[in-house]
Structure formats: C-alpha cells, structure tokens
Amino acid sequence: MKTLLHYLFLLCFNILLPAVHSQCIKDQQQSLLHLKKSLQFDQPSRQTPLISWNSSTDCCSWVGVTCTSDGHVVGLDLSNKTISGPILGSFANFSNLRVLNLSSNTISGTVPGFFANFSKLTSLNLSGCWLNGIFPNEIFQVPTLQTIDLSANFKLGGSLPEFPKKIGSLQSLSLSETNFSGSLPDSIGNLKMLSTIDLSNCSFHGSIPSSLFSLPLLSQLNLSHNQFSGELAFSNVSSNLVTLDLSFNNLEGQISVSIFNSTVKTVDLHSNKLQGPIPTFLPSAKYLDYSINNFSSIPSNIGDFLTNTLFFSLSSNNLHGLIPASICNASNLQILNLSNNSLSGMIPQCLTAMRHLSVLNLARNNLTGSISNVEVTEDSSLQILEIGGNQLYGKVPKSLAKCTMLEVLNIGNNNITDSFPCLLKNISTLRVLILRSNNFYGGIECLNTNGTWPGVQIIDLAHNNFSGEIQGILWRTWREMMATENGSLSTIAFGSHTKRKTLASMTATSCTRVSDKSCRGYKNVVPSRAHESCLSDPTNRLCNRYADAGSSNADAGTSNADDGYSLEYSVSVTVTSKGLEMELVKILSIFTLIDFSSNNFSGPIPTEIGEFKALCVLNLSRNAFTGEIPSKFGNMQVLESLDLSQNKLSGHIPPQLAELTFLSFLDLSYNQLVGRIPTSNQFSTFPPSSFTGNKGLRGFPLTVDNKAGFPPPPTMNGRSPNSGHHHEVNWDLISAEIGFIVGFGVAVGSLVSCKRWRKWYYRAMYNILLKIFPQLEERIGIHRKHVHINQW
Ligand SMILES: *[C@@H]1O[C@H](CO)[C@@H](O)[C@H](O)[C@H]1NC(C)=O
Ligand SMILES: *[C@@H]1O[C@H](CO)[C@@H](O)[C@H](O)[C@H]1NC(C)=O
Ligand SMILES: *[C@@H]1O[C@H](CO)[C@@H](O)[C@H](O)[C@H]1NC(C)=O
Ligand SMILES: *[C@@H]1O[C@H](CO)[C@@H](O)[C@H](O)[C@H]1NC(C)=O
Ligand SMILES: *[C@@H]1O[C@H](CO)[C@@H](O)[C@H](O)[C@H]1NC(C)=O
Ligand SMILES: *[C@@H]1O[C@H](CO)[C@@H](O)[C@H](O)[C@H]1NC(C)=O
Ligand SMILES: *[C@@H]1O[C@H](CO)[C@@H](O)[C@H](O)[C@H]1NC(C)=O
Ligand SMILES: *[C@@H]1O[C@H](CO)[C@@H](O)[C@H](O)[C@H]1NC(C)=O
Ligand SMILES: *[C@@H]1O[C@H](CO)[C@@H](O)[C@H](O)[C@H]1NC(C)=O
Ligand SMILES: *[C@@H]1O[C@H](CO)[C@@H](O)[C@H](O)[C@H]1NC(C)=O
Ligand SMILES: *[C@@H]1O[C@H](CO)[C@@H](O)[C@H](O)[C@H]1NC(C)=O
Ligand SMILES: CC(=O)N[C@H]1CO[C@H](CO)[C@@H](O)[C@@H]1O
Hints:
By secondary structure, the chain is of the alpha/beta class. It has a domain at 22-158: Leucine-rich repeat, LRR (right-handed beta-alpha superhelix), CATH 3.80.10.10. α6 (497-511) crosses α9 (538-556) and α10 packs antiparallel against α11 (754-772).
C-alpha cells in the first residue's frame, strides 16, 4: 500500500514536473549509485550529504540530479558536498552531461581529459576544488561549452588553446586564482559570445590581444594581478564593456585617446607603468582608478570628461603642474584622490566648494599658498580632508567649521601657524585629527565651546610648539578612547546605506567560497574598492575581487545610473609608533593613538588618561611633563606602546604598568625616575634603553652600576648618534615596508583576534627588520620576543 501511494505520488509529481522528476533510466541509476560509492566525504562522521541517493527512489529526484523528460541524467550539481579525494575519473560514465558543478569541494587531483569528449557539455564548474596538475586545454574547445569556471584552484596550471574560427558558444570564462600561464591567443577573438572574462590573479603574461576588446558582447573584463605587459593597443572597443580591470600588471606606454566609445562604468588601471597624460575619453565612467602609474600630466579640460564620475584617483603618479580648475566641473565627484604626486601651485578655491565631494585627498604634493581663506560651502559633504605633506601656510580656515560631517582632518607636515583650532570642537563626527609638524602654538584647551568628540581615535599634535598644562577635563570629551570593548574593522563608506548593504551581502556570500580562510572573516566588512587597501592588503584584495564582481553585476543589471554603486575609501595616516613612522592604511575603530610628542607641554600628566581603556598608542615624549607616572595607567588594558621619554617625570615606576600585558614598546628613558624597575614577564623583554637616563632607577635590565653615565639622549629623528653601527638607514624604505605590514596586520588583526595578529605582526616585523638591518640578529639574539626599533 505504502509503495503504491509512493508510486502514485511520484507519478503525480512527474506529470507536474516532467523535466525534473521524470523517472530515471535503470542504467543511469546504476551509474549514479556507482558514483556515490566511489565518492569520499570529508566528514565521514556526519550524515552523508547524498542521503537521498537511495536505490528505492527515482534517481531523477535525487539531490543535485537533473534529468531530461525521458530520464537521462543531464545535470549534476554536487557543489559544496564535502566531497574529497581525486574522484573526477568516476564521472567518465556521464558523457551526456550538460551541466556539471563540483565547486567548493576538496576534490584535489588532476582533471581528466575525457571531459573534452562530453559533446553536450554547456557548463563546467570546478571552482574551489583544490585541483592541481595541468588542465587539459581541449576542454575549452568543446563546441557546446557556454560557461567554464575553474577559479580558486591555485595549484591548477594550464594555458588557453587556440580557438577555432568557427564561432564558439563560450559566454563566461573564469580562471581567476589559478596557476594558468602563457599568453592569451589572438584567436580568443573568435569566441564572439564571450561576455565575462575573469583571468585575475593568474600567471598570464605577454601583451593583451586587441581582439579581446572587440568582442561584441564583452561586458566584464578582469585581467588584474597578472604579468601582462606592452602597450594598450586597441582600436575599437566593445560598446557593451562595463567593467575593465587591468590593475596590477606591467602595462606601459601611453594610452591613445578617443578609442573608447562605450558604456564603460568602471576602469581600474592602477599599479601599472602607464605614462603620458591622463586619458580623457570615458565620459560614462563612474569609477576611474589610474593610481600608481607613471602618468605625468592632467589635461586642463579633465573635468569635462568626468561629468558622471564618482570616484577618481590619480594618486601615486608622477604628476606635475597645477591642479586644473576644470576638475570642479566634475560635479558628481564624491572621491578625489590626487595624493602622492608633485602637483604645485595653490589649491583651486572651487575644489573645497564642491557640494558632493566627500573625500578630498591632496596630501604629499608640492602645493603652496595660504589656506586661511579656503572656503567650504554651507552644505558641505566633506568627510575626509587630507592636505598634509605640502608647503601650505596660514591659519586653519574658519570655514572648516561648516564641515559638520568631517571625520578625518589631516593638515600635518605643512607650515601652518595657528593656535589650536577650537572651531573643530563642534564637529562631533571627528575621528582623526592630524596637526603634526606645523607651527601650532599655545594651549589646547577650548574654553568657549562645550563641543565633544565622542568618536575620536587619533590625535596627533606632535612636532609643534604647543605648550601649557593639560587639564584632565579635556580628556573626558574623547569618549571613544575610553571604550572598553574591541572595535571591529570599520572603514568609512559612501553611498547610501542600502546600496552599501547590498554590496556587503553579495560580498559575504561570494567571499566564503574563497579557499583562503582569512577571507572568511570578511563577512561583516564592506571590502574597499579604493586602491590603498588593495595595495597593501592582499587578503582584502582577494575579497575585493568578489566585491567588484558583485558590484559590477549589480551595475550591469540596472538602468538607473546610480544604482549598485557604492564607493569606499580607506584613510591612510602616517603615525609614529614604537619609534617608527608608519602608515596605517586602514584605520580601524580599534586603533587609537595620542601623540603629543615634541612640544612644550608641562605640568603633571592627567590621571584621567588612565581611563582611556581602548588606547593603543600613547606618546608624550620630548615635552616638559613633571610629577609621577599615574598609577591609573594600569587601566589601559590594550596599550601597546607607551613613550614618556625625555620629560621631567619623577618618582617610581608604578607597578601597575607591569600588568599591561599587551605592552610591547616602552620608553621611559631620560626622566628623573627612581627606585626598582618592576619585574614581570612583560618588563623583562624591554631593553636597557627603555630605562636609561634615569639616575635613580635600578634593577633588571639596567646594569648594577648605573652611575657610569648615560649615552647622550637620542636625537630628534630617533637615531642615537652613539648606536655603534655604520649602516646608513633608509627611513623611507622602512616607513614604506612597515606601512605595508601594518596595513595588512591591522586588517587581518581585527578578523583573527588581536592575539594572533600580534604574533604574526611581530614575526613579520622581525623579518623585515632583519632584511634592513642584517646585523640585528647578532645584536638582539634570536630569543628576543620583541623588536625595539628605537634602539638605533
Ligand atoms: C560506469 O558504470 C558501470 C555501472 O553501470 C560501472 O560498472 C563502471 O565501473 C562505471 N565506470 C566508471 C568509470 O565509473
Ligand atoms: C532507502 O530509503 C528507504 C525508505 O526511505 C529506507 O528504508 C532504506 O533504508 C534506504 N536505503 C538506504 C541504503 O539508505
Ligand atoms: C556549504 O555548506 C555548508 C554546510 O551545509 C554551508 O554552511 C555553507 O554556507 C555552504 N557554502 C556555500 C558556498 O554554499
Ligand atoms: C553550479 O554551477 C552552475 C553553473 O556553473 C550554477 O548555475 C549553479 O548555480 C551552481 N550551483 C550552486 C549550488 O552554486
Ligand atoms: C560555480 O559555482 C559557484 C558555487 O560554488 C558559483 O558561485 C559560481 O557562480 C559558479 N560559476 C558559474 C560560472 O556559474
Ligand atoms: C575521446 O574520444 C575519442 C574518439 O571518440 C577517443 O579517441 C579519445 O581517446 C577520447 N579521449 C579521452 C580522453 O577519453
Ligand atoms: C605554477 O606553475 C609554475 C610553472 O609554470 C610552477 O613552477 C609553480 O610551482 C606552480 N605553482 C603552484 C602553486 O602550483
Ligand atoms: C559614440 O557614442 C555616441 C553616444 O554616446 C554616439 O552618438 C556615437 O555615434 C558613437 N560613435 C561611434 C563611433 O560609435
Ligand atoms: C616644489 O616646488 C618648489 C617651488 O615652489 C620647487 O623648487 C621644487 O622643485 C618642487 N619640488 C618638487 C618635488 O616638485
Ligand atoms: C613657514 O612660515 C613662516 C611664517 O609663517 C615663514 O617665516 C617660514 O619661512 C616658513 N617656512 C617654510 C619652510 O616655508
Ligand atoms: C557650556 O556649558 C555651560 C554649563 O553647562 C554653560 O554655562 C556655557 O554657557 C556653555 N558654553 C557654551 C559656549 O555653550
Ligand atoms: C599571481 C598572484 O597574485 N597570485 C596570488 C593569488 O592569490 C593567492 C592567495 O589566494 C596568493 O597566494 C597568490 O600569490
């Protein structure tokens, strides 16, 4: 009875859904059961994922099986079924398959050549299978093949074959993150149906065939992270092209003008060796990244070609000359990054008045002029303003008070002469304030305002002429630093909230299939499209690619010009920590820093600082602070770096300091401290130089005889003239390398928990230092856990 009902049920079902549930032919069932037997699963303890593959039921109803109406198995989707072991050989019996998806399994092993004989195959998906060996390239020539996805098999080698003249049916070709190599055949132009090509992060080289660009249906082309070279020579570009990513290659030469007349929306050419003037031919583009190339000039009419552009980066090129005022005609621009060039002249007045501009980065150029009169519009969108590292002078412009959304202000390393800009006190959104290396003077108290900075993370006032005592009450207005819980990776994002969410969720689903575990944690993060993070953070880059794919899809599928576009930008800030300048490529909400070093602050250190439970770096060195080190410092549980050197501090070192388990850098040298140095595991790792120059200090690691006189205090640039090595140190190089590491470490750190990051960080740091200072190993020995950079 039961079987009869069952049969009737199946019959009914089959009538309703004939294509899917038609009854399976006996020998097909045998083959499938045979296949099931041959499969191994990663977690044998768990219920087998193919429980429905049971001889007493119709095989066309089994999970992952698709049949034709006459019961032939034509589709197998066994993706993400914990299948393991080199089992591809057991698919030889299914030569009539149209669709085979084995993605996200740990199949490993090589790909057998017989798939090339699957004459009906339309879709082959072997992405994320840990495959190795050489992929049999005849499979690309299966005439029915429409999509092939071999991505994320980083040991899978191979090359692309010549393609026959006869029009191929291939629409989508993904080989990203494989070890495919060789050059692209010109005959790829015969695959007239191709719309998506993703060959990113492979080992391809040679020139990019121009035939690629004339594929009539091509909409997504991603060749990033390869070794493509030569000039970009193409005469005609597919009018369907939407996304072009050629970043991280060795492309060179000038890009000839007026070649594109297309719907291109995203162009990413960053990290190549392209030269000449910035190309101006993509009026439809919304995202243009030309950073890290050798482009030398900006055409004066550039703005006329940017009328739709939201993101425009020319950072880290070789640009000279003035910033063309026409750039202000790009009225939709939200992010403009011209940093790290040799641009000169004044900042065009109209730039800061652009209404939609959220990010303006002109840092590290050769800009001159007074900024006192810079005008900001009433409804300014400015969130990030970076003009540090120029030759700007004058006072902090009063109109900045109108930037009610400002989060990051970096005007450091200029020649600004002003008192503390109290007008910023009313901007409650401020997170990062960098005034370092200017001529600021006077006290930092703001008597005429009650404004607070509840989210402030970085305050860098170093190398100015600030003076006076610091009142405890001041600190109370900096709430973020008092937070107790760890923050999460937080980048500053633009675009409407919902759009951002869409991108984030797309990212989350696609990121999880990346085999690299470190990427999995990115679920809650909107990966950045901005180049800075890509440059310095390979993990993020990996996720970026998926984010890119996601956003481009959204882009392609929409008619509304603005939909699906979400821009992001990472703030990079150079800070001094642990005696070295370093560039923090991504500012985490977890990263907090106070640097008041090299000023004339005096009086006692307010005990309230001890309430900054989330403070990572505190540098009060080279001032005239007096009194004792507050014992409340023991409350700063996450403090990693504490520099109080070269002040007039007296009294004992509070034993509470020894309880700061994260503290990896400590400098109390050249004060008037007395008594015994606390003993703890942590303190025993600090070198004598952490304590030297205090007449009254004794105990490990200082030698017993501490009266023999001290070496002279370190000079302003952090190098001791007496350090006994004759090695010229290239501080730029170190700064760059540390920047790289920190950017990576910080991003990973928040994902993998602070502790693991720390281990990694110190190992990486140590390796880099060994490279730069080969003598390091003998000096500090291989047993030292931490590296104290300011020894030199
Ligand atoms: C194909 O299936 C038959 C059973 O139908 C089985 O005997 C044979 O071994 C299978 N061949 C392969 C290569 O799996
Ligand atoms: C197949 O399914 C039937 C009923 O659902 C069950 O009684 C039988 O044990 C299953 N066989 C196997 C091999 O799992
Ligand atoms: C794979 O399967 C596991 C468990 O069923 C699930 O948690 C995970 O999200 C799946 N991954 C993908 C990429 O579908
Ligand atoms: C398997 O791959 C095919 C095409 O390659 C795709 O349509 C299908 O959605 C994939 N299955 C899963 C579960 O991702
Ligand atoms: C291959 O399968 C994965 C799921 O594992 C899917 O995300 C991807 O889109 C598929 N590729 C193609 C080309 O359909
Ligand atoms: C593919 O089929 C041809 C002829 O049908 C045969 O000669 C060849 O050996 C087959 N290739 C593989 C790898 O099975
Ligand atoms: C990638 O291929 C090259 C040869 O082209 C080989 O030397 C290298 O080991 C391969 N890498 C991996 C991860 O398989
Ligand atoms: C270029 O695009 C414009 C519209 O955007 C169109 O009017 C013109 O005909 C196109 N030119 C060519 C050569 O395709
Ligand atoms: C910066 O500008 C000054 C003149 O204002 C010039 O002498 C100097 O060479 C410029 N530096 C660079 C790197 O362009
Ligand atoms: C900095 O500005 C002061 C006056 O404000 C001026 O005397 C000095 O020459 C400037 N320094 C540089 C390096 O431009
Ligand atoms: C600040 O607050 C105090 C009392 O809370 C008030 O008397 C004073 O007027 C306020 N100052 C400003 C500038 O708002
Ligand atoms: C050529 C290249 O950039 N390969 C990288 C691809 O991504 C993996 C991580 O998944 C890196 O390890 C490779 O170096």
